[in-house]
Write a structure and sequence with these properties.
By secondary structure, the chain is of the alpha/beta class. It has 11 helices and 13 strands. It has a single domain, classed as Spore Coat Polysaccharide Biosynthesis Protein SpsA, Chain A (Alpha-Beta Complex). Bound molecules: 1-O-phosphono-alpha-D-glucopyranose (G1P). 1-O-phosphono-alpha-D-glucopyranose (G1P) binds next to β11 and α9.
C-alpha cells in the first residue's frame, strides 16, 4: 500500500542575492507575479496535490512570509463592510488553518539538502513533498498533483524532470537514465551541477520532489558536495546506490525559473497574458513593443 503524501517542505531560507536590492528588505518568495507572491503559487500547487501540512524552512529576515500567511481580521472586516466580496475571497484564499503551517529556522546556509534535513522531526516517518518556490510551473493539472498521481503507481522517490539545453545542464541536478518510459524515467544515478561537458543526460531536476524518509536518514551522513553545500541530489542518489527506486517524472506544463531575472520577467508576461482582465491591454502593449520596432527596421 502506498502512503498518501500530506506534508510538504518549502525551502525558503535563500538570501535571494540575485534580486538585490529588492531582497534587502523583502524575502524573494514575496516577490510578485502579477498580484500574487511566488510563495502563493507554490502553496496553491501543494493544496491541489492534497498537502495538508506546510513546513517552511526559513532564515533570518523572512518574517514577512509568516505575516503573509497570517489572518488579517481588520482588513477582512473593512472589506466585508464595504461589500467587497471578491477581494475578501482573494484574501481568504491566503489564510492557513491554525496548526497547518510550521516554520523551522535553518541557522546556516549549508545547502538545499541541509534545509530539508532541518525539517526532519516534523516529517518523521512519512513520504513527503519538497517544493522549490523559485520554480514556477504553469500547467493545466498542477505539477505536484501529476506527480502524486504517478507516485501512487510507483512508490519510491520521484523528482520532476525537464529536458534542458546541454550547455545549461551544469546549473541543475542531472539524471542518469536507466530506462526511459516516456513521462516516467527510471534512473541509475544523479549528479548535482555536473562540470560542463560531463552531464550524463540533458534531463534536469526541477524543484518538485516526492521523497521517502530514508532520504532524511541519508542526509544525516551526507557531507558537502557541489559548491561545498549539502546537496539534496546526493541524498537521493544514495537511494539508488541502496537499490531503491528513484524516478524522474516529465511533467506536462511550462516551467519558469523565477530565481533568475529573465525567468521572472518571462513568467510575468505569461501569467499576465493568462489573466482575462489583463489580456487585451497587455497583449496590445506587447505587440506594439515587440512587433512594431521589428517592422520599422
Ligand atoms: C536546486 C537543486 C537542483 C535542481 C534545481 C532546480 O538547485 O539543487 O538539483 O536542478 O534546484 O531549480 P539551485 O537552483 O537551488 O541551485
Amino acid at each position: 500500500m502506498k502512503r498518501r503524501v500530506t506534508k510538504a517542505i518549502f525551502p525558503v531560507a535563500g538570501l535571494g542575492t540575485r534580486f538585490l536590492p529588492a531582497t534587502k528588505s523583502i524575502p524573494k518568495e514575496i516577490m510578485t507575479l502579477v498580484d500574487r507572491p511566488l510563495i502563493q503559487y507554490a502553496i496553491d500547487e501543494a493544496r491541489a496535490a492534497g498537502i495538508k501540512e506546510f513546513i517552511f524552512v526559513t532564515s533570518r529576515g523572512k518574517g514577512a512570509l509568516e505575516d503573509y500567511f497570517d489572518h488579517a481580521p481588520e482588513l477582512e472586516a473593512s472589506l466585508r463592510k464595504k461589500g467587497k466580496d471578491d477581494l475578501l475571497n482573494i484574501l481568504k484564499s491566503t489564510n492557513m488553518e491554525s496548526g497547518a503551517i510550521a516554520y523551522i529556522r535553518q541557522h546556516r546556509a549549508l545547502g538545499l539538502g541541509h534545509a530539508v534535513w532541518c525539517a526532519r522531526r516534523l516529517i518523521a516517518n512519512e513520504p513527503f513533498a519538497v517544493i522549490l518556490p523559485d520554480d514556477v510551473i504553469a500547467a493545466e493539472k498542477p505539477c505536484l498533483q501529476q506527480m502524486v498521481e504517478a507516485y501512487q503507481e510507483t512508490g519510491g522517490c520521484m523528482v520532476a524532470a525537464m529536458e534542458v539545453p546541454p550547455q545549461a545542464a551544469s546549473a541543475y541536478g542531472v539524471l542518469d537514465i536507466k530506462e526511459d518510459m516516456g513521462s516516467m524515467v527510471s534512473i541509475k544515478g544523479m549528479v548535482e551541477k555536473p562540470e560542463p561537458g560531463t552531464a550524463p543526460s540533458n534531463l534536469a531536476v526541477i524543484g518538485r520532489y516526492i521523497l521517502t524518509p530514508k532520504v532524511l536518514q541519508n542526509l544525516n551522513r551526507i557531507r558537502g558536495g557541489a559548491g561545498g553545500e549539502i546537496q539534496l541530489t546526493d541524498a537521493i542518489a544514495e537511494e539508488i546506490r541502496n537499490e531503491r527506486d528513484v524516478f524522474g517524472f516529465r511533467f506536462r506544463g511550462e516551467r519558469f525559473d523565477c530565481g533568475s531575472k529573465a525567468g521572472f520577467l518571462q513568467a510575468t508576461v505569461a501569467f499576465g497574458l493568462a489573466r482575462d482582465e489583463l489580456r487585451e491591454e497587455f497583449s496590445q502593449y506587447l505587440r506594439e513593443m515587440v512587433i512594431l520596432p521589428d517592422a520599422a527596421q
